[in-house]
């Protein structure tokens, strides 16, 4: 049983479940917590995110490069993952434990410090976890399967981190909610690490120098087009998650306790649709499926503009879930093909560097989402929960529907600059093996 789980899509997906529960709770509710509940101004919240992005531009490539250069008996990625786990837990709890009665400037300083620490540790985790995917799963068929399983777990995590969060903080407070999610993170991340073993061959490769690693990454045109398009789509993910609590209050005019139902409508509908997108990937291939997902996602956010009341919001959320499912499942296959092509060109597997730079590009979407929030909020006079302005309904209709539609159209157009055939792994050595024979049997002593 233990040997069968080793390096399996299920074991890897436990890591996604572990990280996405707290990360989704953070991304969906930090604005609501600091801006709506605690009264931090939008301008200061945006400034904090901007300061962090300057640091993120530096730390992502550095951590990716260090990960690629790490050589230990446990692998390149696992020591970083295990070492950062305690810090991740502490900083996540810190985010939702702002001191009571702090003035706006002191609240800003607390948020900035907590944000810098939490996001930095998150970077270490995501870079090393993401770098494992193209190394563990070789060949398009196995990657499509692993991506579907992984994203299925991600959707469960999105549902828990979004829909369960309002219930937990209403019952126990924000700090205790963070503690509960931290316990879940610890359990599932340890399971992922226990049943993951890295490639011996990858550890033996001589790493590129930092300058050479950057040069090889920067000149990869397909890599930049793919991740630039993804950054616009990822901004939509951030907007949907973070704006829904405001959308429920100001547009649908529902009770705060009903926000969980609204969030659940989006993510529950996604779960069975993962299988649909897995089938589409098997038929169309990586790039075509990814491009189709962007188009469907763009159309799926439009009903959110017209929804009224809880019932209308749930119906629109289910429609949005179909587009979201496609975007969650399809990018991993394309990313793996791009990294494989680079490995053939350089003779080295540099998952860490590629994951880090891709992470910086797509995580810049967080700043785009915050900037959109700030600009639209200022346009319609929304400053905070204490000063919502004259027309907050219009502000949040734009933020949850029209702006996401425009961003996804941009992503869809950019996708046509990417080659339709990146050179799949279907003819590769690993893909010629039957799927159930790709993971070597491992003895109990090796697992220990």
**Low-pLDDT sequence parts:** 424-448
Q: Kindly estimate the percentage of residues that lie in beta strands according to DSSP.
A: under 5%
**What count of helical segments does DSSP give?**
18
Nearest-integer average pLDDT: 81
SSE order, one letter for each helix or strand = HHHHHHHHHHHHHHHHHH
| Total strands | 0
Structural class: mainly alpha
Quick one: overall form?
A: globular
Radius of gyration: 21 Å
Q: Distance N terminus to C terminus?
A: 14 Å
CATH architecture: Up-down Bundle
CATH class: Mainly Alpha
Biggest beta-sheet profile: none
CATH superfamily heading: MFS general substrate transporter like domains
Helix content: over 70%
Count of all domains: 1
CATH topology: Growth Hormone, Chain: A
Description:
- The chain is an all-alpha fold.
- The protein has one domain (8-197, 218-424): Growth Hormone, Chain: A.
- It has 18 helices and no strands.
- The protein has helices spanning 2-5, 9-37, 42-69, 78-95, 104-136, 140-172, 174-194, 200-204, 210-218, 221-250, 259-284, 286-300, 303-306, 309-329, 331-346, 351-379, 392-415, 444-447.
- Helix 3 (42-69) runs parallel beside helix 5 and helix 5 runs antiparallel to helix 16.
- It is globular.
């Amino acid at each position: 049983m233990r040997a069968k789980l080793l390096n399996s899509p299920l074991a890897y997906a436990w890591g996604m479940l572990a990280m996405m529960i707290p990360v989704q709770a953070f991304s969906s509710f930090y604005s609501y917590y600091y801006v709506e509940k605690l009264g931090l101004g939008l301008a200061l919240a945006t400034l904090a995110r901007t300061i962090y992005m300057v640091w993120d531009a530096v730390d992502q490539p550095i951590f990716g490069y260090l990960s690629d250069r790490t050589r230990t008996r446990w692998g390149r990625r696992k020591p970083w993952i295990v070492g950062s786990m305690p810090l991740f837990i502490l900083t996540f709890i810190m985010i939702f434990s702002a001191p009571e009665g702090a003035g706006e400037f002191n609240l800003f300083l607390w948020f900035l410090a907590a944000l810098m620490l939490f996001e930095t540790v998150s970077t270490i985790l995501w870079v090393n976890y993401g770098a494992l995917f193209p190394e563990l799963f070789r060949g398009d068929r196995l990657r499509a399967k692993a991506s579907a399983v992984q994203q299925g777990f991600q959707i469960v995590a999105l549902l828990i981190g979004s829909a369960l969060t309002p219930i937990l903080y209403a019952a126990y407070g924000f700090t205790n909610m963070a503690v509960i999610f931290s316990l879940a993170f610890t359990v599932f991340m340890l399971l992922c690490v226990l049943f993951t073993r890295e490639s011996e061959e990858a550890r033996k490769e001589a790493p590129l120098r930092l300058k050479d690693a950057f040069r090889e990454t920067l000149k990869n045109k397909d890599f930049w087009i793919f991740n630039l398009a993804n950054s616009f789509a990822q901004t939509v993910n951030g907007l949907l998650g973070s704006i829904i609590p405001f959308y429920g209050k100001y547009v649908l005019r529902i009770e705060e306790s009903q926000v969980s139902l609204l969030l659940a409508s989006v993510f529950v509908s996604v779960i069975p649709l993962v299988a649909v997108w897995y089938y589409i990937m098997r038929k169309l291939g990586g790039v075509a499926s990814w491009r189709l997902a962007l188009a469907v996602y763009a159309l799926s956010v439009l009903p959110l503009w017209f929804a009224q009341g809880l019932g209308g919001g749930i119906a629109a959320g289910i429609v949005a879930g179909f587009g979201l499912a496609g975007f969650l499942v399809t990018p991993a296959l394309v990313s793996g093909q791009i990294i494989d092509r680079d490995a053939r060109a350089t003779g080295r597997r540099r998952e860490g560097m590629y994951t880090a730079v891709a992470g910086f590009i797509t995580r810049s979407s967080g700043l785009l989402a915050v900037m959109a929030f700030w600009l639209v909020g200022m346009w319609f006079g929304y400053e905070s929960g204490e000063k919502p302005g004259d027309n907050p309904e219009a502000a949040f209709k734009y933020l949850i529907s029209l702006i996401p539609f425009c961003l996804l159209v941009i992503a869809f157009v950019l996708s046509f600059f990417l080659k339709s055939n990146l050179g799949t792994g279907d003819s590769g050595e690993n893909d010629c093996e039957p799927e159930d024979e790709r993971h070597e049997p491992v003895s109990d002593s090796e697992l220990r």
